[in-house]
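Page 37, continued from 36.
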C-alpha cells in the first residue's frame, strides 16, 4: 500500500522531464542535420545545372557571358531553395584544359571541360538544438559541392 501517492506522482513528473529533454534534443538534431543535407543537395544540384549550361555555351561568349550566367544560375537556385547567406561570390567557375587543370576562360577558345564549385560557404548548425551544458551553441559546417563536366560544343 502506497502511503504517499503525491511522492510517486512527483517522481513521474521528474522522469518525464528528463525523457522529454532528451527527445526534444534528438528531434532538434534531426531537424538541423536535415537542413544541412537539404542545403548540400540544393547546392550540388545547382552546380550540376550550371555546369551543364556552361558545357554547351558558345565558345565565342564563354568568358564574357556564360561564366556570369553560370554564377547567377547557382545563386538563383540557392535562393529558391532557401539557402541563406549565399551569393555569387561563393561560386567558382573554371574552364579546364585537356588534362582537366583549371585555366582561364577565354572568348573564342573552347575548353576541354568546365568546373562549377561552391567555395567559402559555411552554415551554422545548432540554432534549434536546446542548450546543452558544456556544449557550444552553434557549429560551423563548410559546404563545398562541385561539378566537373566535359565541354560538349
Amino acid at each position: 500500500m502506497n502511503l504517499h501517492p503525491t511522492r510517486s506522482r512527483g517522481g513521474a513528473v521528474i522522469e518525464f522531464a528528463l525523457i522529454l529533454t532528451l527527445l526534444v534534443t534528438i528531434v532538434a538534431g534531426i531537424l538541423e542535420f536535415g537542413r544541412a543535407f537539404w542545403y548540400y543537395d540544393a547546392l550540388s544540384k545547382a552546380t550540376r545545372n550550371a555546369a551543364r549550361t556552361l558545357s554547351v555555351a558558345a565558345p565565342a561568349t564563354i568568358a564574357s557571358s556564360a561564366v556570369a550566367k553560370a554564377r547567377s544560375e547557382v545563386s538563383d537556385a540557392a535562393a529558391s531553395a532557401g539557402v541563406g547567406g549565399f551569393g555569387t561570390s561563393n561560386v567558382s567557375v573554371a574552364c579546364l584544359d585537356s588534362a582537366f587543370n583549371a585555366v582561364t576562360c577565354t572568348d573564342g577558345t573552347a575548353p576541354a571541360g568546365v568546373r562549377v564549385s561552391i567555395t567559402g560557404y559555411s552554415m551554422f548548425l545548432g540554432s534549434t538544438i536546446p542548450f546543452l551544458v558544456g556544449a557550444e551553441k552553434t557549429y560551423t559546417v563548410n559546404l563545398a559541392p562541385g561539378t566537373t563536366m566535359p565541354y560538349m560544343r
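The radius of gyration is 24 Å. Flag for discussion at group meeting. Residues 5-55 form the longest helix (51 residues).
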